[in-house]
Amino acid sequence: MNILTITLIGTLVCAFGTTFGAFLIVILKKTNNILMSSIIGIAAGLMLSVVTFDLIPESIETGGLLLAVVGTIIGISFAIILDYFCLT
């Protein structure tokens, strides 16, 4: 496959996912905390798997182990700082 085909497929999948999510919100106008917690947990798990199995190995190949570890620590620190200032 060429890059244009891959880009178009990725765009269509993202558009479908966003439309499906918006459709669920319209249908389920009143949601409970269990449903929202489940949806957020699934999204967090997907993002964690992308980072673990795709981004970190790529960063190790590109910049080396030390740079990947330093970048990960900086990213985690930044997320903790944002979490602290945004929730207090």
Helix share bin: over 70%
For the record, give the distance between the C-alpha atoms at the N and C termini, rounded to a whole number. Answer: 48 Å
Broad shape = flat
Summarize the helix and strand pattern as letters: HHH
**Major sheet summary line:** none
| Beta-strand share of residues | under 5%
Number of helices: 3
**Rg measurement, Å:** 18 Å
- Low-confidence parts lasting 5 or more residues at pLDDT below 50? none
Number of extended strands: 0
Mean pLDDT rating: 86
Structural class: mainly alpha
Helix-strand layout with pairing:
Blueprint (H helix, E strand, L loop, with lengths): L2 H25 L5 H31 L1 H23 L1
Helix pairs in contact: 2-3
Provide structural commentary:
The structure is a single chain. With 88 residues, the chain is mostly helical. It is 90% helix and 0% strand. The chain is built from three helices and no strands. The protein has helices spanning 3-27, 33-63, 65-87. Helix 2 packs antiparallel against helix 3. It is flat and about 45 Å long. The termini are far apart.
